[in-house]
Amino acid sequence: EGTSGKTALHMAVELHDLPAVNLLLNKGANVDAAMFNGCTALHLAVGRQDAAIANLLCQAGADKMIRNMEDETALDLADGNDD
């Protein structure tokens, strides 16, 4: 983590690296860790329309109702996606 608050899990999600996300979750990564802007890995996955990673995060217990600094949940972001 640096000043952004990004964890390895956030970076793996940003890279659309499903195997790395799975590995990090299996090793105990905090699925609900938030960056400085309040975004969790689930916010990132949904924002990038990466359904496979979003589903994996949900299966790992990600909280869909955490709000980022713009007062958006991952569900709010999903509602805004065209897919």
Automatic annotation (TrEMBL):
Keyword annotations of the record: ANK repeat, Repeat
Listed SUPFAM superfamilies: Ankyrin repeat
SMART domains: ANK (SM00248)
InterPro entries registered for this protein in UniProt: Ankyrin_rpt, Ankyrin_rpt-contain_sf, NF-kappa-B_inhibitor
Keyword Repeat annotated: yes
Keyword Repeat: yes
Pfam families found in the cross-reference section: Ank_2
Positions annotated as ANK repeat: 4-36, 37-69
Cross-referenced PANTHER family: NF-KAPPA-B INHIBITOR ALPHA (PTHR46680), NFKB INHIBITOR EPSILON (PTHR46680:SF5)
Protein name in the entry: Uncharacterized protein
Biological source species: Cirrhinus mrigala
Organism lineage string: Eukaryota, Metazoa, Chordata, Craniata, Vertebrata
